[in-house]
Specification:
289 residues, mainly alpha, Heme Oxygenase, Chain A, 2 domains, 14 helices, elongated, binds protoporphyrin IX containing FE
């Protein structure tokens, strides 16, 4: 006879993913996000990745909505994110957003795993739903505030639909309900172990996505629409990222880059220029005396 689990699934998941959670929080991408240093370009790439991930998760969720190994945690009205992400992507990229975004390698790997799980190992789907949705309802709420401030997004919420859960009136109570529902899922000890391992895997897939986004930004790799991903120094968020007026954003970035371009590019030339100005100031001073 199959052995029963000795611990509730919700507790087992929380305990087992503590370490990978810390790892995710400490990725360079998440650290700069938390410091309010997220760049508009980075944020847009992040939303695009999330769009592919949630489309896959929600497609598989739909496929398994009547499957007893998933049905108790099927909450489309409360949790689904893909429609919200579509709104955000349209806000940032404009009406042609579908043509502008690209599914990069790490995101594709995540998407493939979600489809595999949904089709062939549906009892593991809860692990992915847990990692994403409970994460969005927890740390995601902190990230929302940071994004709004550091990207100068409108307080009315445009561009931040992903973080908003209008179908959930009390987040804390909803998380309790979700955990309780996870604990009613039919499973033996071996299946619980596999679910816990899958949740760890899903965190690692997220981490790979963050690392890839970081790489894309720092390499200045061209995006799908051909425009270069600007390096950090040239596209810092504060004061220049105003996505609610996209033209102004581009203009602001250009203006900032133009000011930078007016300065000599090497430290040596800057020193020469500084000494020249100093010398002139001293000469004018002496002359005036
Ligand atoms: C800077 C990034 C992050 C911060 C500040 C953060 C913060 C938090 C906090 C404060 C909680 C506890 C909430 C509570 O006990 O009610 C939490 C829970 C959680 N977070 Fe994060 N988090 C971050 C990133 C992530 C990422 C990247 C993921 C997954 C991809 C994630 C998944 C989760 C999950 C699944 C939980 C629920 C744990 C449980 O109650 O079982 N978090 N997070």
């Amino acid at each position: 006879m199959a052995e029963r689990p000795t611990q509730d699934l919700s507790e087992a998941l929380k305990e087992a993913t503590k370490e990978v959670h810390e790892q995710a929080e400490n990725t360079q991408f998440m650290k700069s996000f938390q410091r309010g240093q997220v760049l508009l370009r980075e944020f847009k790439l992040y939303l695009a990745s999330l769009y592919y991930i949630y489309s896959a998760l929600e497609e598989e969720s739909e496929r398994n909505k009547d499957n007893p190994v998933y049905a108790p945690v099927y909450f489309p009205a409360e949790l689904n994110r893909s429609a919200a992400l579509e709104k955000d992507l349209e806000y940032f990229y404009g009406p042609t957003w579908r043509r502008e975004i690209q599914c990069h390698e790490a995101t594709q790997k995540y998407v493939d795993r979600l489809h595999h799980v949904g089709q062939y190992e549906p009892e593991l789907l809860v692990a992915h739903a847990y990692t994403r949705y409970l994460g969005d309802l927890s740390g995601g709420q902190i990230l929302r505030k940071i994004a709004q401030k550091s990207l100068n997004l409108p307080k009315t919420g445009e561009g931040l639909a992903f973080f908003d859960f209008p179908g959930v009136t009390n987040i804390s109570k909803f998380k309790q309900l979700y955990r309780a529902r996870m604990n009613t899922l039919p499973m033996d000890a071996a299946t619980e172990k596999r679910i816990v391992e899958e949740a760890e895997k899903s965190f690692l897939l997220d981490i790979e996505v963050f690392e890839e986004l970081q790489r894309l930004i720092s390499q200045g790799k061209p995006s799908a629409n051909g425009s270069a991903v600007l390096p950090k120094l040239e596209l810092h968020t504060r004061g220049i990222n105003r996505p609610h007026s996209p033209a102004a954003t581009v203009e602001n970035v250009r203006t900032q880059m133009w000011h930078k371009d007016m300065l000599p590019s090497t430290p040596f030339l800057r020193w020469v220029l500084a000494l020249f100005f100093l010398g002139t100031a001293v000469a004018v001073g002496l002359y005036a005396m």
